[in-house]
Fold:
Amino acid sequence: MISARAYGDNGKMKEYHYTGPVEHKFSPYAFNGGTVLAVAGEDFALVASDTRLSEGYSIHSRDSPKCYKLTDTTVIGCSGFHGDCLTLTKIIEARLKMYKHSNNKSMTSGAIAAMLSTILYGKRFFPYYVYNIIGGLDEEGRGAVYSFDPVGSYQRDTYKAGGSASAMLQPLLDNQIGFKNMENVEQLPLTLEKAVQLVKDVFISAAERDVYTGDALKICIITKEGIREEIVPLRKD
Amino acid sequence: MALQDVCGFLETLDDISPCTYLPNEMGYMWRTPFEFDRDSAFHFLFPPQQCSRKNRAPTLFSSTFSSLSPHQQPFQLSHGTTTLGFIFQDGVIAAADTRASCKGLICCPISQKIMPIHSHLVVNTSGSGADCMLWERILTREMRLYQLRHRKRLSINGAAKLLSTMLHPFKGTNVCVAATLCGWDGEETQDTLQSCMEIADVKEAVEQDSNVSAISDVSAQGGVKMASINEQDEISKDTQALNPTVSNQNTKNVLSTFGGRSGPRVCYVCSDGLQLKGEIISVGSGSPYAYAVLDDGWRWGMTVDEAVALAREAVFRATHWDAYSGNNVDLFHITAHGWRRRDREDLKEEYYREREREKKKIKEREKERQKREGDELVEGEGDIYSVHCG
Structure:
């Protein structure tokens, strides 16, 4: 860490010397990297994530996917601090079971999104350090994507990227799926094959430029037939 | 509370906690799935115990706690916006941009900052996105409960007071909510509509008076009297015994207190506890620019189209100068009949239209100049002593 004291008054760097013991405050958070992406189509939804788990300069695991299946029509992608991701998914699964037992039906995607918002805001003053994206089918069978911030603000989107490479991927999705800032372009609806190909291309690009993204890509494809998974290898360096 | 501190009275089991940091947090965390079912309605109305611990007498262990909470968050919450609301003779206009930014990155270019609470009230939110979303839901719930319990809608000022009271326990924490409540007070009866038009006439007359805000404060006090008369009016309507004298009294009282109980209102509530009432309120990082445009163009007697154009222009100028505002403009117009939403307009179009207008103006100016030069040339030829300045 470069501190202000490393530079002397004339602008030249001071000679390095031991400044004394430095207190490092314990931080309850860690950043484990990873990127999550979700796209909603007419009658399908895709949730994709890479499978690398890193911390600082090390890689803890190359096979730690960040998509978790919640119901037959909903998948959640969580990236950020892995400890909070695990606990949050356990809490969501417990609440889903409670709902199923009390109401005798599974929760819909919209209901899960609203519930997650209140769970996250419940820890407003010691938040879960997780960037969530829920992808699934709504009651009418159309694709739905809900994106969250760490304290529970959410909204329904058509596509969203979250995690370490989100700032790189989101503009690309804006252009390719949202047709933003393109003049005189024919806006065709997104087909499943094109969406899957786009997601693969986009993650390959992310792995090129983001150190926390790579190893493998797991895509969960949600249609009315169920949830199908595809695994694609990515750069391992 | 003070007595409690002096006696060292421990309120809940939470206080007899072990001194180490982690197990306590775990205890709090694992309770969450079940906490919701027991007291879900009140779960958000108080901050968690660790915040109140700061007020207790410092002990060996509590000093460790105070240094660890609030925790250093490794992420930023969304901030930065331009929202505005103003009243005029034909209702209230609420406008906002749609950009949600997060420390340099635009989290969402199409967020919705104006949310309707009920048919006659919308709230412009700015501040932290999650806080605004949740507090707006809590306010909607409380207002609906009030309406069911008391059989009449809560007024805008009452809603502002309610929200301010609910936010008070969180003063000092980093909850950041700055909400502008824009709406139309009063019941949707023929009497109130007529009285509103009369108010409008009176307001027109005192438009030049700089003490207009002072008068509306007086009207707020007079409003209590109005409330009882309006209730009587409602009850008499219910029992199908329309008393013409009551309604006459209604309008007479309204004339004597400008604004009375019904009419357009804007109220600002902040999580610091600040509450403001006025005619023009703008909030956010782009508000200085919006205020400049609004102050210039606002008149009580504006038409709906003028008001809409003014609001849109104000947000457009603010988005032009402020980096944290942009993308689109959302506009809501609230009248005695309820709110109506205008189409969301992309400011990119506005920007191009502005460029076209500028180009046209430059061309016209150029033509004028050439014409003027041509005329001077013709005049100058006849007089040898004139100085030709081109």
About this structure: Chain B touches chain A through 40 residues (CB under 8 Å). Chain B has twelve helices and 13 strands.
